[in-house]
Amino acid sequence: MRKLAMLLIVLLLVAGGGFWLLSAPTRLEPQLLAAAQPGDATRGEAVFWQGGCASCHAAPGASGDARRVLAGGVQLVTDFGTFVAPNISPSPQGIGGWSFEDLANAMMKGVAPDGRHFYPAFPYASYARMQVQDIADLHAFLQTLPPSDHVAEPHRLKFPYTLRRGIGLWKRLYLSSQPAVTLAGADEAVKRGQYLVEGPGHCGECHTPRDGFGGLDTSRWMAGAPSPEGKGVIPNITGGEGGIDSWSAQDIAYALESGFTPDFDSLGGSMADVVQNMSHVSAADREAIAAYLKAIPAHPNGYPATR
Amino acid sequence: MQSSRLIALIPALALALSAASAATADPITERQALMKDQGRAVGTVTPIMKGEKPFDAAIVQSALKKLNDDAQKIDAATLFPAGTDKGDTTASPKIWEDNAGFVAAIEKYKADTAAAVAADPKDLESFKTAFSQVSKNCGTCHQTYRIKKD
Protein backbone atom coordinates (compact mmCIF):
# COMPACT_ATOMS: atom_id res chain seq x y z
CA MET A 1 0.00 0.00 0.00
CA ARG A 2 2.73 2.41 1.00
CA LYS A 3 4.70 1.30 -2.06
CA LEU A 4 1.75 2.10 -4.29
CA ALA A 5 1.37 5.57 -2.77
CA MET A 6 5.09 6.22 -3.27
CA LEU A 7 4.83 5.09 -6.88
CA LEU A 8 1.89 7.42 -7.44
CA ILE A 9 3.76 10.38 -5.98
CA VAL A 10 6.79 9.64 -8.12
CA LEU A 11 4.63 9.33 -11.24
CA LEU A 12 2.89 12.61 -10.48
CA LEU A 13 6.22 14.34 -9.93
CA VAL A 14 7.56 12.95 -13.22
CA ALA A 15 4.41 14.00 -15.08
CA GLY A 16 4.45 17.43 -13.45
CA GLY A 17 8.15 17.87 -14.17
CA GLY A 18 7.64 16.73 -17.74
CA PHE A 19 4.79 19.22 -18.19
CA TRP A 20 6.89 21.98 -16.67
CA LEU A 21 9.81 21.24 -19.00
CA LEU A 22 7.71 20.80 -22.13
CA SER A 23 5.67 23.92 -21.49
CA ALA A 24 8.66 26.18 -20.83
CA PRO A 25 8.87 29.39 -22.90
CA THR A 26 11.60 29.37 -25.53
CA ARG A 27 13.24 32.47 -27.00
CA LEU A 28 14.83 33.27 -30.34
CA GLU A 29 18.49 32.45 -30.88
CA PRO A 30 20.56 35.56 -29.96
CA GLN A 31 22.62 35.32 -33.17
CA LEU A 32 19.44 35.54 -35.26
CA LEU A 33 18.60 38.84 -33.55
CA ALA A 34 22.18 40.10 -33.72
CA ALA A 35 22.11 39.80 -37.51
CA ALA A 36 19.45 42.54 -37.83
CA GLN A 37 20.46 46.06 -38.88
CA PRO A 38 19.23 49.02 -36.80
CA GLY A 39 15.50 49.55 -37.43
CA ASP A 40 14.26 51.94 -40.13
CA ALA A 41 10.99 53.59 -39.06
CA THR A 42 9.87 54.34 -42.63
CA ARG A 43 10.15 50.70 -43.63
CA GLY A 44 8.61 49.84 -40.29
CA GLU A 45 5.46 51.76 -41.13
CA ALA A 46 4.95 49.50 -44.14
CA VAL A 47 5.32 46.46 -41.85
CA PHE A 48 2.85 48.04 -39.41
CA TRP A 49 0.10 48.17 -42.05
CA GLN A 50 0.95 44.73 -43.46
CA GLY A 51 0.69 43.32 -39.94
CA GLY A 52 -2.65 44.95 -39.18
CA CYS A 53 -1.52 45.96 -35.67
CA ALA A 54 -4.08 48.78 -35.48
CA SER A 55 -7.01 46.42 -36.04
CA CYS A 56 -6.70 45.06 -32.52
CA HIS A 57 -4.48 47.55 -30.70
CA ALA A 58 -6.07 50.89 -31.65
CA ALA A 59 -8.96 51.92 -29.42
CA PRO A 60 -12.30 50.28 -30.35
CA GLY A 61 -13.92 52.12 -33.28
CA ALA A 62 -10.86 54.32 -33.94
CA SER A 63 -10.58 55.67 -37.48
CA GLY A 64 -8.14 57.85 -39.40
CA ASP A 65 -5.12 59.05 -37.41
CA ALA A 66 -6.62 57.67 -34.20
CA ARG A 67 -5.62 54.21 -35.51
CA ARG A 68 -2.00 55.20 -34.82
CA VAL A 69 -2.68 55.45 -31.09
CA LEU A 70 -2.25 51.86 -29.93
CA ALA A 71 -4.08 52.24 -26.62
CA GLY A 72 -5.63 48.75 -26.69
CA GLY A 73 -9.08 47.82 -25.46
CA VAL A 74 -10.57 45.93 -28.42
CA GLN A 75 -12.37 42.83 -27.13
CA LEU A 76 -12.29 39.51 -28.94
CA VAL A 77 -15.20 37.44 -27.73
CA THR A 78 -14.37 33.77 -28.42
CA ASP A 79 -15.24 30.28 -27.22
CA PHE A 80 -12.26 30.46 -24.86
CA GLY A 81 -13.48 33.67 -23.24
CA THR A 82 -12.91 37.35 -23.94
CA PHE A 83 -9.46 38.55 -24.89
CA VAL A 84 -8.71 42.25 -24.46
CA ALA A 85 -5.99 43.70 -26.70
CA PRO A 86 -3.33 45.45 -24.59
CA ASN A 87 -1.82 48.91 -24.95
CA ILE A 88 1.26 48.65 -27.20
CA SER A 89 1.95 52.38 -27.49
CA PRO A 90 5.39 53.70 -26.46
CA SER A 91 4.43 54.51 -22.86
CA PRO A 92 4.96 53.00 -19.39
CA GLN A 93 1.44 51.49 -19.64
CA GLY A 94 2.29 50.17 -23.11
CA ILE A 95 5.52 48.67 -24.39
CA GLY A 96 7.67 51.81 -24.11
CA GLY A 97 10.35 49.89 -22.27
CA TRP A 98 10.61 47.03 -24.75
CA SER A 99 13.82 46.47 -26.70
CA PHE A 100 13.81 45.19 -30.26
CA GLU A 101 14.71 41.78 -28.82
CA ASP A 102 11.66 41.90 -26.55
CA LEU A 103 9.39 42.72 -29.49
CA ALA A 104 10.92 39.96 -31.63
CA ASN A 105 10.44 37.35 -28.90
CA ALA A 106 6.86 38.48 -28.37
CA MET A 107 5.97 38.40 -32.06
CA MET A 108 7.89 35.32 -33.16
CA LYS A 109 7.87 33.17 -29.99
CA GLY A 110 4.84 34.48 -28.11
CA VAL A 111 6.96 35.18 -25.04
CA ALA A 112 6.64 38.33 -22.91
CA PRO A 113 9.77 40.04 -21.53
CA ASP A 114 8.94 38.58 -18.09
CA GLY A 115 8.88 35.07 -19.56
CA ARG A 116 5.13 34.48 -19.61
CA HIS A 117 3.43 32.97 -22.65
CA PHE A 118 1.12 35.20 -24.64
CA TYR A 119 -2.21 33.74 -25.71
CA PRO A 120 -2.26 32.90 -29.43
CA ALA A 121 -5.13 35.39 -29.94
CA PHE A 122 -2.02 37.50 -30.55
CA PRO A 123 -1.19 35.91 -33.92
CA TYR A 124 2.44 35.02 -33.24
CA ALA A 125 1.90 31.62 -34.86
CA SER A 126 1.83 33.65 -38.11
CA TYR A 127 4.34 36.33 -37.12
CA ALA A 128 6.80 33.46 -36.42
CA ARG A 129 7.35 33.38 -40.20
CA MET A 130 8.46 37.03 -40.34
CA GLN A 131 11.92 38.27 -41.15
CA VAL A 132 13.78 39.58 -38.13
CA GLN A 133 14.68 42.74 -40.03
CA ASP A 134 10.98 43.56 -40.47
CA ILE A 135 10.54 43.32 -36.69
CA ALA A 136 13.52 45.64 -36.16
CA ASP A 137 11.98 48.18 -38.54
CA LEU A 138 8.57 47.81 -36.93
CA HIS A 139 10.13 48.37 -33.51
CA ALA A 140 11.65 51.64 -34.76
CA PHE A 141 8.29 52.73 -36.20
CA LEU A 142 6.25 51.87 -33.08
CA GLN A 143 8.47 54.23 -31.08
CA THR A 144 7.42 57.14 -33.31
CA LEU A 145 3.71 56.68 -32.47
CA PRO A 146 1.85 58.73 -29.84
CA PRO A 147 1.96 57.31 -26.28
CA SER A 148 -1.23 56.40 -24.45
CA ASP A 149 -1.61 55.88 -20.70
CA HIS A 150 -4.69 53.68 -21.12
CA VAL A 151 -4.61 50.48 -19.07
CA ALA A 152 -6.53 47.75 -20.89
CA GLU A 153 -8.73 45.44 -18.84
CA PRO A 154 -7.45 41.91 -18.15
CA HIS A 155 -8.64 39.00 -20.30
CA ARG A 156 -11.75 37.22 -19.03
CA LEU A 157 -11.15 33.56 -19.85
CA LYS A 158 -12.72 30.27 -18.92
CA PHE A 159 -10.86 27.58 -16.97
CA PRO A 160 -8.51 25.89 -17.97
CA TYR A 161 -7.49 28.60 -20.43
CA THR A 162 -6.64 30.80 -17.47
CA LEU A 163 -3.50 28.65 -17.00
CA ARG A 164 -0.96 30.28 -19.30
CA ARG A 165 1.73 27.69 -18.79
CA GLY A 166 -0.22 25.17 -20.88
CA ILE A 167 0.26 27.39 -23.95
CA GLY A 168 3.81 26.06 -24.02
CA LEU A 169 2.44 22.66 -25.09
CA TRP A 170 0.24 24.30 -27.74
CA LYS A 171 3.30 26.05 -29.12
CA ARG A 172 5.14 22.75 -29.41
CA LEU A 173 2.36 21.56 -31.71
CA TYR A 174 1.65 24.68 -33.74
CA LEU A 175 4.42 27.28 -33.52
CA SER A 176 6.72 27.00 -36.50
CA SER A 177 8.52 29.35 -38.84
CA GLN A 178 7.97 26.96 -41.76
CA PRO A 179 5.66 28.01 -44.65
CA ALA A 180 2.05 26.86 -44.39
CA VAL A 181 1.95 25.55 -47.97
CA THR A 182 4.62 24.47 -50.42
CA LEU A 183 4.27 26.09 -53.84
CA ALA A 184 6.35 24.60 -56.63
CA GLY A 185 7.71 27.04 -59.20
CA ALA A 186 6.59 30.17 -57.33
CA ASP A 187 7.75 33.41 -58.97
CA GLU A 188 8.93 36.46 -57.04
CA ALA A 189 5.44 37.95 -56.70
CA VAL A 190 3.99 34.68 -55.36
CA LYS A 191 6.88 34.35 -52.91
CA ARG A 192 6.38 37.90 -51.69
CA GLY A 193 2.64 37.25 -51.39
CA GLN A 194 3.31 34.07 -49.43
CA TYR A 195 5.47 35.99 -46.99
CA LEU A 196 2.86 38.74 -46.57
CA VAL A 197 -0.14 36.43 -46.24
CA GLU A 198 1.38 33.69 -44.07
CA GLY A 199 3.58 36.02 -41.99
CA PRO A 200 2.71 39.62 -41.12
CA GLY A 201 -0.75 39.60 -42.78
CA HIS A 202 -1.76 36.59 -40.62
CA CYS A 203 -4.70 35.95 -43.01
CA GLY A 204 -4.80 32.25 -42.11
CA GLU A 205 -5.73 33.06 -38.51
CA CYS A 206 -9.31 33.69 -39.61
CA HIS A 207 -9.53 32.21 -43.11
CA THR A 208 -8.23 28.72 -42.17
CA PRO A 209 -10.27 26.27 -40.08
CA ARG A 210 -8.82 25.13 -36.75
CA ASP A 211 -8.47 21.61 -35.40
CA GLY A 212 -9.65 20.36 -31.99
CA PHE A 213 -6.77 22.01 -30.12
CA GLY A 214 -7.19 25.38 -31.81
CA GLY A 215 -4.30 25.03 -34.23
CA LEU A 216 -4.64 25.94 -37.92
CA ASP A 217 -5.43 23.00 -40.20
CA THR A 218 -2.93 23.66 -42.99
CA SER A 219 -4.45 20.82 -45.06
CA ARG A 220 -7.40 23.18 -45.56
CA TRP A 221 -5.35 26.37 -45.78
CA MET A 222 -7.55 29.44 -46.50
CA ALA A 223 -10.67 27.27 -47.02
CA GLY A 224 -12.74 29.56 -44.80
CA ALA A 225 -13.89 28.85 -41.26
CA PRO A 226 -16.57 29.58 -38.71
CA SER A 227 -15.98 33.10 -37.40
CA PRO A 228 -13.66 33.00 -34.35
CA GLU A 229 -16.00 35.55 -32.81
CA GLY A 230 -18.92 33.15 -32.85
CA LYS A 231 -21.38 34.44 -35.44
CA GLY A 232 -21.27 33.82 -39.18
CA VAL A 233 -18.38 32.59 -41.29
CA ILE A 234 -15.06 33.78 -42.67
CA PRO A 235 -15.09 33.10 -46.44
CA ASN A 236 -13.15 30.53 -48.41
CA ILE A 237 -10.47 32.43 -50.36
CA THR A 238 -9.08 29.48 -52.31
CA GLY A 239 -10.18 28.58 -55.83
CA GLY A 240 -12.29 25.68 -54.53
CA GLU A 241 -16.07 25.38 -54.48
CA GLY A 242 -17.55 28.26 -52.52
CA GLY A 243 -14.29 30.18 -52.88
CA ILE A 244 -13.09 32.97 -55.14
CA ASP A 245 -12.03 31.12 -58.28
CA SER A 246 -14.04 33.55 -60.40
CA TRP A 247 -12.02 36.51 -59.08
CA SER A 248 -9.03 37.54 -61.16
CA ALA A 249 -5.80 38.58 -59.45
CA GLN A 250 -6.73 42.19 -60.29
CA ASP A 251 -10.12 41.68 -58.63
CA ILE A 252 -8.43 40.51 -55.43
CA ALA A 253 -5.96 43.41 -55.41
CA TYR A 254 -8.76 45.92 -56.06
CA ALA A 255 -10.94 44.41 -53.31
CA LEU A 256 -8.07 44.80 -50.84
CA GLU A 257 -7.55 48.40 -51.92
CA SER A 258 -11.16 49.57 -52.24
CA GLY A 259 -13.23 47.10 -50.23
CA PHE A 260 -15.38 46.27 -53.28
CA THR A 261 -15.81 42.71 -54.52
CA PRO A 262 -16.13 41.94 -58.27
CA ASP A 263 -19.93 42.00 -57.92
CA PHE A 264 -19.70 45.41 -56.18
CA ASP A 265 -20.63 44.17 -52.77
CA SER A 266 -18.48 45.70 -50.06
CA LEU A 267 -16.29 43.74 -47.67
CA GLY A 268 -17.62 43.88 -44.13
CA GLY A 269 -17.02 42.37 -40.71
CA SER A 270 -13.42 42.33 -39.57
CA MET A 271 -12.35 42.50 -43.24
CA ALA A 272 -13.50 46.15 -43.39
CA ASP A 273 -10.67 46.92 -41.02
CA VAL A 274 -8.21 44.84 -43.04
CA VAL A 275 -9.10 46.95 -46.08
CA GLN A 276 -8.20 50.08 -44.11
CA ASN A 277 -4.79 48.55 -43.40
CA MET A 278 -4.33 47.28 -46.95
CA SER A 279 -5.08 50.70 -48.43
CA HIS A 280 -1.76 51.80 -46.83
CA VAL A 281 0.15 48.85 -48.31
CA SER A 282 1.96 49.30 -51.66
CA ALA A 283 0.15 48.36 -54.86
CA ALA A 284 2.93 45.86 -55.64
CA ASP A 285 2.35 44.12 -52.32
CA ARG A 286 -1.42 43.94 -52.85
CA GLU A 287 -0.74 42.40 -56.27
CA ALA A 288 1.67 39.92 -54.67
CA ILE A 289 -1.01 38.85 -52.19
CA ALA A 290 -3.41 38.35 -55.10
CA ALA A 291 -0.84 36.30 -57.04
CA TYR A 292 -0.28 34.07 -54.00
CA LEU A 293 -4.00 33.51 -53.42
CA LYS A 294 -4.37 32.46 -57.07
CA ALA A 295 -1.49 29.99 -56.59
CA ILE A 296 -2.55 28.13 -53.42
CA PRO A 297 -4.35 24.75 -53.56
CA ALA A 298 -8.13 24.85 -53.99
CA HIS A 299 -10.35 23.52 -51.19
CA PRO A 300 -14.11 23.33 -50.67
CA ASN A 301 -15.50 25.47 -47.84
CA GLY A 302 -13.83 24.78 -44.51
CA TYR A 303 -17.05 25.39 -42.58
CA PRO A 304 -20.40 23.56 -42.48
CA ALA A 305 -23.22 24.91 -44.69
CA THR A 306 -25.37 27.35 -42.75
CA ARG A 307 -28.39 27.27 -45.02
CA MET B 1 -78.84 40.50 -57.25
CA GLN B 2 -76.47 38.66 -55.06
CA SER B 3 -73.95 38.14 -57.83
CA SER B 4 -74.03 41.74 -58.97
CA ARG B 5 -73.24 42.87 -55.46
CA LEU B 6 -70.35 40.46 -55.41
CA ILE B 7 -69.07 41.75 -58.73
CA ALA B 8 -69.25 45.28 -57.40
CA LEU B 9 -67.10 44.21 -54.52
CA ILE B 10 -64.28 42.87 -56.69
CA PRO B 11 -62.45 46.15 -57.39
CA ALA B 12 -62.60 47.10 -53.72
CA LEU B 13 -61.31 43.69 -52.77
CA ALA B 14 -58.48 43.89 -55.30
CA LEU B 15 -57.54 47.32 -54.01
CA ALA B 16 -57.52 46.10 -50.44
CA LEU B 17 -55.37 43.11 -51.40
CA SER B 18 -52.78 45.17 -53.22
CA ALA B 19 -52.59 47.67 -50.35
CA ALA B 20 -52.06 44.81 -47.93
CA SER B 21 -49.33 43.28 -50.06
CA ALA B 22 -47.52 46.64 -50.31
CA ALA B 23 -47.58 47.05 -46.56
CA THR B 24 -46.36 43.53 -45.89
CA ALA B 25 -43.82 43.35 -48.73
CA ASP B 26 -40.89 41.47 -47.29
CA PRO B 27 -38.48 44.06 -45.85
CA ILE B 28 -35.60 41.59 -46.28
CA THR B 29 -36.18 41.30 -50.06
CA GLU B 30 -36.76 45.02 -50.31
CA ARG B 31 -33.60 46.09 -48.52
CA GLN B 32 -31.53 43.51 -50.41
CA ALA B 33 -32.80 44.89 -53.73
CA LEU B 34 -31.90 48.39 -52.59
CA MET B 35 -28.38 47.27 -51.64
CA LYS B 36 -27.94 45.48 -54.99
CA ASP B 37 -29.05 48.64 -56.79
CA GLN B 38 -26.33 50.62 -55.03
CA GLY B 39 -23.84 47.90 -55.95
CA ARG B 40 -24.78 48.37 -59.61
CA ALA B 41 -24.20 52.12 -59.30
CA VAL B 42 -20.75 51.43 -57.83
CA GLY B 43 -20.16 49.04 -60.75
CA THR B 44 -20.68 51.78 -63.31
CA VAL B 45 -17.81 53.87 -61.88
CA THR B 46 -15.42 51.07 -60.90
CA PRO B 47 -13.62 51.00 -64.29
CA ILE B 48 -13.01 54.74 -63.85
CA MET B 49 -11.73 54.25 -60.28
CA LYS B 50 -9.42 51.48 -61.51
CA GLY B 51 -8.16 53.64 -64.39
CA GLU B 52 -9.44 51.18 -67.00
CA LYS B 53 -11.73 53.81 -68.49
CA PRO B 54 -11.25 57.58 -68.80
CA PHE B 55 -13.01 59.94 -66.42
CA ASP B 56 -16.54 60.82 -67.60
CA ALA B 57 -18.32 63.52 -65.60
CA ALA B 58 -21.78 62.42 -66.79
CA ILE B 59 -21.30 58.77 -65.78
CA VAL B 60 -19.91 59.56 -62.36
CA GLN B 61 -22.55 62.18 -61.58
CA SER B 62 -25.34 59.79 -62.54
CA ALA B 63 -23.81 57.09 -60.30
CA LEU B 64 -23.52 59.51 -57.40
CA LYS B 65 -27.13 60.60 -57.92
CA LYS B 66 -28.27 56.99 -57.99
CA LEU B 67 -26.40 56.26 -54.77
CA ASN B 68 -27.91 59.34 -53.16
CA ASP B 69 -31.44 58.48 -54.31
CA ASP B 70 -31.07 54.96 -52.92
CA ALA B 71 -29.45 56.20 -49.72
CA GLN B 72 -32.38 58.50 -49.02
CA LYS B 73 -34.73 55.48 -49.31
CA ILE B 74 -33.01 53.63 -46.46
CA ASP B 75 -35.29 53.82 -43.47
CA ALA B 76 -34.29 51.75 -40.48
CA ALA B 77 -37.83 51.43 -39.12
CA THR B 78 -39.47 50.09 -42.29
CA LEU B 79 -36.58 48.21 -43.95
CA PHE B 80 -35.07 46.81 -40.76
CA PRO B 81 -38.05 46.22 -38.45
CA ALA B 82 -37.38 44.22 -35.28
CA GLY B 83 -37.32 40.48 -35.90
CA THR B 84 -35.92 40.66 -39.43
CA ASP B 85 -32.56 39.29 -38.35
CA LYS B 86 -34.24 35.91 -38.89
CA GLY B 87 -34.54 34.39 -42.34
CA ASP B 88 -32.44 34.66 -45.48
CA THR B 89 -30.53 37.71 -44.32
CA THR B 90 -27.05 38.72 -43.31
CA ALA B 91 -28.28 41.50 -41.04
CA SER B 92 -26.49 41.43 -37.70
CA PRO B 93 -28.47 41.43 -34.41
CA LYS B 94 -26.35 44.51 -33.59
CA ILE B 95 -28.78 46.54 -35.76
CA TRP B 96 -31.35 46.13 -33.01
CA GLU B 97 -28.97 45.96 -30.07
CA ASP B 98 -27.58 49.36 -31.03
CA ASN B 99 -30.38 50.80 -33.13
CA ALA B 100 -29.37 54.40 -32.40
CA GLY B 101 -25.89 53.67 -33.73
CA PHE B 102 -27.36 52.03 -36.82
CA VAL B 103 -29.66 54.97 -37.49
CA ALA B 104 -26.74 57.38 -37.05
CA ALA B 105 -24.68 55.36 -39.58
CA ILE B 106 -27.53 55.62 -42.11
CA GLU B 107 -27.86 59.37 -41.52
CA LYS B 108 -24.14 59.81 -42.10
CA TYR B 109 -24.37 57.85 -45.35
CA LYS B 110 -27.26 60.02 -46.52
CA ALA B 111 -25.34 63.20 -45.73
CA ASP B 112 -22.20 61.95 -47.48
CA THR B 113 -24.00 60.89 -50.67
CA ALA B 114 -25.85 64.22 -50.79
CA ALA B 115 -22.54 66.07 -50.38
CA ALA B 116 -20.96 64.00 -53.17
CA VAL B 117 -23.79 64.91 -55.55
CA ALA B 118 -23.47 68.58 -54.58
CA ALA B 119 -19.71 68.40 -55.22
CA ASP B 120 -20.50 67.45 -58.87
CA PRO B 121 -16.89 66.32 -59.58
CA LYS B 122 -15.43 67.48 -62.89
CA ASP B 123 -12.13 65.59 -62.81
CA LEU B 124 -10.78 62.23 -61.65
CA GLU B 125 -9.09 63.51 -58.50
CA SER B 126 -12.14 65.31 -57.14
CA PHE B 127 -14.29 62.31 -58.06
CA LYS B 128 -12.01 59.96 -56.15
CA THR B 129 -12.26 62.21 -53.10
CA ALA B 130 -16.06 62.41 -53.31
CA PHE B 131 -16.46 58.70 -54.00
CA SER B 132 -14.19 57.56 -51.19
CA GLN B 133 -16.17 59.75 -48.77
CA VAL B 134 -19.27 57.81 -49.89
CA SER B 135 -17.77 54.31 -50.12
CA LYS B 136 -16.18 54.47 -46.66
CA ASN B 137 -19.72 54.17 -45.37
CA CYS B 138 -20.15 50.76 -47.01
CA GLY B 139 -17.25 49.26 -45.06
CA THR B 140 -18.04 50.98 -41.77
CA CYS B 141 -21.66 49.91 -41.77
CA HIS B 142 -20.99 46.36 -43.01
CA GLN B 143 -18.23 45.95 -40.45
CA THR B 144 -20.61 46.28 -37.54
CA TYR B 145 -24.09 45.59 -38.84
CA ARG B 146 -23.68 42.68 -41.25
CA ILE B 147 -22.69 39.07 -40.65
CA LYS B 148 -21.24 37.04 -43.48
CA LYS B 149 -23.06 33.70 -43.70
CA ASP B 150 -21.82 31.86 -46.78
Can you summarize the main beta sheet of chain B? none
Number of domains of chain B: 1
Largest interface: A-B, 30 and 23 residues
Strand content of chain B: under 5%
- For CATH, the homologous superfamily of chain B is named as Cytochrome c/b562
**What's the N-to-C terminus distance of chain B?**
59 Å
Structural class based on helices, strands and sheet pairing of chain B: mainly alpha
Q: Note the beta-strand portion of chain A.
A: under 5%
Rg on CA atoms of chain B, Å: 20 Å
Instruction: Tally the beta strands of chain A.
Output: 5
Which stretches of chain B are low in confidence, meaning pLDDT under 50 for 5 or more residues running? 15-23
Q: Name the assembly state.
A: heterodimer
Categorize the overall geometry of chain A.
Answer: globular
Describe the structure.
The complex is a heterodimer of chains A (307) and B (150). A 3-stranded antiparallel β-sheet of chain A has the order 1-2-3, with no helix packed on it. Chain A has a two-stranded antiparallel ribbon with strand order 4-5. Chain A starts with a helix and ends in a 12-residue tail after the last helix. Chain A has 2 domains: 26-174; 188-295, no CATH class. Chain A is globular. In chain A, helix 5 packs across helix 7 (132-142), helix 9 packs across helix 13 and helix 11 packs across helix 12. Chain A has helices spanning 2-22, 30-34, 41-51, 53-57, 100-109, 124-127, 132-142, 167-174, 188-198, 204-207, 249-258, 269-278, 283-295; strands at residues 75-78, 81-84, 156-157, 225-226, 233-234. Chain A has 307 residues and is mainly alpha-helical. The model of chain A has no long low-confidence stretch (mean pLDDT 95). In chain A, 40% of the residues lie in helices and 5% in strands. The N and C termini of chain B lie far apart (59 Å). Helix content of chain B is 76%, strand content 0%. Residues 15-23 of chain B have low confidence and may be disordered. Chain B is elongated, with a radius of gyration of 20 Å. Chain B has 150 residues and is mainly α. Chain B has a single domain, classed as Cytochrome c/b562 (Four Helix Bundle (Hemerythrin (Met), subunit A), Up-down Bundle).
